[in-house]
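User: Mind token order:
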Amino acid sequence: MANTYTTKLNLAKPANGDVNWHIPINGNWDDIDSKLGPLYEDITDSATEIKVTKNINMNQKNIVDIETLVFRRTTHVLGGDGLLFSGSEATVASDYDEPGEVLINILVAQYNLDHYNPAPSRTITVFKNDVSIGTMSQASINTGEYYTYYPAAELLFSASYSLAAEDVFTVTIDVGTTPTLKFYGTIGFALPTGLIT
């Protein structure tokens, strides 16, 4: 009888009573070894950690729900994509001891209003240690059916801001979903390595 095959790895499944069924089974083991072998070589597991020996390409996907980021190097100059935190607050680690500065972008979501009346601009404010360090506004748009804050946007705060241990950066908005912080590096920028919420 003809083999059937698994959907993910295309491994052969001999039928009951097949002759020489060892041939496709041995082929399966070779396929598994070739596909999982590189992972075995590049990822090691111990009682306290999983160690990866190669770079990880996230293919432009976010890493979310991280409690703490710890870096072996405290200084890091970011590329053009910046560093995105999936939250509205970032705290610099308490053991951070290198001077640096950061550029901040704010990601705001589209927000539709359920009425026809003109709406004022909404205000986005960035705080450092509970002190406002900048505000921006986004005007509403009349779609013909309702007013909306559109489109979703990435707003640049052009000034750079210094970093120190235990600095807390937050962002608020008076209408719509809470925005997200995005940091860009400059010369001397040191990556916040502490709690990200």
